[in-house]
What does this fold into?
Amino acid sequence: MKTVFAVLALAASAFAQSIAIFSPTPGQSIIAGNGGEVVVQKPGSLTGSTDIGVAVLIQHCTQNPCEDVSQDLGTIFYAGAFTPTVQRGVADNVPFQQFFASVPQNFPKGPAVLSVPHSVLIGAGPFFFNEIVNVTINIA
Ligand SMILES: *[C@@H]1O[C@H](CO)[C@@H](O)[C@H](O)[C@H]1NC(C)=O
It folds into this structure.
């Protein structure tokens, strides 16, 4: 019983540490050659956590809806520190960090999956948590 509660508590705090892609939004276009802004949010949480980092990758889809790309995440546009901060009036006042995906002119056009893998240390232990969040966009 104790174990069940502990696991549920860990799951709940892990969920509270999840990130979200604020921008781009589903279906939004990024122009190849211009690139696009990527805003990753970390909604407020009660448990302390230390972010290890995130990455931003984009994979062209060959199917509609997009195939699962979790084993084939595509081109890396960023990999490194994640240090979200709050800016009043921006991104609903939720801590966020902005990245730029410099999608090259020759990137395949059409549907694509933008993935953000995230690793974080949670709680006093701490314990290790990682996830991949994604959004399906369009490369134009
Ligand atoms: C997006 O993430 C979800 C949840 O992790 C996963 O089930 C889905 O396969 C991913 N989508 C793609 C296209 O990889």
